[in-house]
Amino acid sequence: MTGVDRSSSAFREALELYQRTPLLELARLADEKRWEQHPENVVTYIIDRNINYTNVCVADCGFCAFYRRPKHDEGYVLSFEEIGRKIDECIEIGGVQILIQGGHNPYIPFGWYLELLRYIKTHHPIHVHGFSPSEIVFFSERFGLDVAQVIRELHSAGLDSIPGGGGEILVDAVRRRVSRKKAMTDDWLAVQAEAHRQGMRSSVTMMYGLGETPEDRIEHLFRIREVQAETGGFTAFICWPLQPEGTPTMSHMPKADSLSYLRLLAVGRIVLDNVPNHQASWVTMGHKIGQVALRFGANDYGSLMMEENVVSAAGTTYRTTLAEIERLITDAGFEARRRQQDYTLIDAPAFVA
Ligand code: SF4
Residues 345-348: contacts with CB within 8 Å, 24+ apart? Predict the structure, then answer.
């Protein structure tokens, strides 16, 4: 991996675009890229369920309202049976994947994760999108295994793809300030690249509003672009702002406004024109901005999620139904289509609202 040269003309141009281009001009440029990559008038979405298998965590991220320290009364680890029940409920409403992530829990042995994956694939088969790069680096350090081996074992036990959780801002100076116990940038990206080399796909994220500079945000995009140029394994980019309410050390931070979200989404589509899909984050921004985002580079409306504990713990709870998602996409002028994790379209059965 190489660093990003902030004095290069490509970097300065992207920064200029982000900071100076009039909003609707930026939208037009992002929309052009979107249509180049997706000429069909379709906006996709997925039905899935976010399962947070444990909230016990030793990473102490300053922006996280979800975790509990070990031995805290409210700490939990879900049983296999509880996870199985949640999967069945997801499948009942037409769900096609689970997103399974958790805290960095020092009490869970590696065998538990492998058994869990085998249990899911045997008793409740579904696409498993799980274990963020930060968790994988934690497993590697905790269990004394190299990252490639951790990924290989999880993959062969049933893990299908990897989410972009824990990406936040991929600049070490920022990470050291807000999540210093978690994987640093090179390690986080190395997990993604290794997963791609082992034939898995993954998504990639940005959570911004952590006190980073505009240059940091552009550097984050350039780092992703660099990995994608090498591996081609990222299916989608998703960005959203910090939800400061209720967080341990960041509740004083200003909440990002809608226009700054749209600017970032748009510049993300333009810089990351080698990542095929860009998601609108209605969970954090609400449906009105979710719809507008479809003209600022997004071609995917994300997911009808049954649970989102981490974001909702910080006080953000936009909820929706299947019928509403389809109506919102249609009202924005697109054909709504359901998809799988790899963005292949699936024919939807009748509405389950
Ligand atoms: S964001 Fe994840 S890693 Fe950080 S404290 Fe919360 S649960 Fe732990």
Answer: 345/42, 345/44, 346/96, 348/94
